[in-house]
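At this stage, I put together one protein's amino acid sequence and its backbone structure tokens, which the following lines show:
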Amino acid sequence: MKIKFCGADRTVTGSQHLLEINGKKILLDCGLFQGKREEAYDINRNFLFDPKELHCVVLSHAHIDHSGNLPSLYSKGFKGDIYCTPATRDLCSIMLLDSGHIQEKDTEYVNKRRAKKNQPLFKPLYKIEDAKRVMENFKTMSYRKRFCIDGLCEAVEVEFFDAGHILGSAMMVLTIKENGRKIKFAFSGDIGRPGLPILKDPEFIGNVDYIISESTYGGRVHDKAVDMHDQLKDVLNEALSRGGKIIIPAFSVGRTQEIIYSLSILFNEGLVDKIPVFIDSPLSTKATDIFKLHPECYDSDLSDMIIRGIEVFELPQLTYIQDVEESKKLNSFEGPCIIISASGMAESGRVLHHLKNNIEDPKSTILIVGYMAEHTLGRRLIESRDIPNANVRIFGDEYFVHSKVVVLNSFSAHADRDELLSYFDRFDREQMQRIFLVHGEIDQQEAFRDGLKNLNFKDIEIPVKGQETDI
């Protein structure tokens, strides 16, 4: 058995890990790399393997940094199956089409500007049609139901476990029989946090021999998830005292629904004035509808609320924006309001227009509630808090950051250092032969590695992109 690390190595986005078992190539995740536009464009167009040679993909969840390059894979000749949970398949059915639409529209917008400057034009990474076609390759499997990969039934069995990260997210255990030996090999995907609203807590996968694990926050400790409502209350009330708009870049899946859930509590308890809330993301609207279709993923609190007839995802002052013209009208909206819009890292989508139109208004607030990868606009906004008269580029133009930028990490859907170490503390040290840390920036990975060593785990590796390892 061989592993080739093809993405999210010493960085957070673009998750791709290639296994070769009995001569067959299995890809774990196929995510988009998100960062500097031209760098991301080149990385996403060029795989470290031949897509035509892949036997299948096993997908951890629907976030674009884990699933978003599947249409490119298909367009370059991949014809195998894509295994995932039912909720992940349903989310991908809207998210990949939305990503294709964004690829086309953003490229069109940028090319208009590049043409005026006589610069070379971009081609979209992939098109909506590629996203539609790749959906035909999906096969769904429920949690805790062992299944074999077609064509490898004698060699590989897979089992999904609830990762508690987003709807349908899975950790996976592959039981591999090769050369007369049996190996339990795990991939964490993204591990969620205990106590987050809506979803169940991450479940333990059992003891394994090898694991590829995320390490996004391997060196940081979040504010407690139970504090998210109080923290959001304080931020909103301070922002309302200045009278401006509150812009929240948010992932359409998971984060948007958590914010709606928290707002419903704050409004219903009278802790925050009931101001207009706009979800300006057609994808978020569709994703919320999919949340309603998968009660098997709910935690007990949300299940009880639904049984009692409490509508969590609908509020009297909440408006879901679909039409582009309605989105544009928000630019001239008078008075304070909350605008939640994608993309979550502020790299594409309608949120860019809202940032462009409000970032120089000192009355406005930009509220960051999720992870922002290096070189993304979201990360630059966070960094701007420490730079006097900071400016950022949006659609190629420079804007001064006069709005207030606030970061709440209690909303994070990634386990922090303490939560990761607590999860790993359940593994048998004698059985665990090697841990590979991916999906993290190097400082976080090194901190997590040190923590694991303190727990007496022995062989912990931080691979580089392109590295190949024999098991």
